[in-house]
Amino acid sequence: MKDNFELCLKMLLKHEGGFVDHPKDPGGMTNLGVTKAVYEDVMGREVTEQEMRALTEEDVKPVYKKLYWDRCWADELPSGVDWAVFDWAVNSGPSRAAKALQRAVNAKPDGAIGPKTLEAVEAADPRDIIDQLSEERELFYRALSTFDTFGKGWLRRNDETRDTALDLV
To answer: What's the whole-model pTM score?
Structure first.
């Protein structure tokens, strides 16, 4: 078992940036990549815009660890693959990222990574997995109705994630 969480979190926060509340973003109010809805679920109550604006890395770190990193079994994935899956999980949901990983390794795409998926990952070339994840992620982005608004940034993020993931292998 390895632990790339700290490194991947640092890279993720560069992608996510600070507070945004773009009217065309279906995620709504977001800070450090955590949406208001997700943070409210974590807190078990409504949160204010002021609370969202005040979020720190220490506030969001346990959110990312529990809801995205651990849910994707990232400590069990090869270096590079962990980053590619984690970044996509945060950006589009853990289930979508897990299903893409499962398709990349010819496992049943049920959205829940477990022993069978990990066995298939172990048998595959991490570089091939990363390339397939990147290709599927781009196709997913291009199909979204908000691609005209956010597409350029999404594609840049996907390319940066792929390149960094390949460097980590």
So the answer is: 0.94
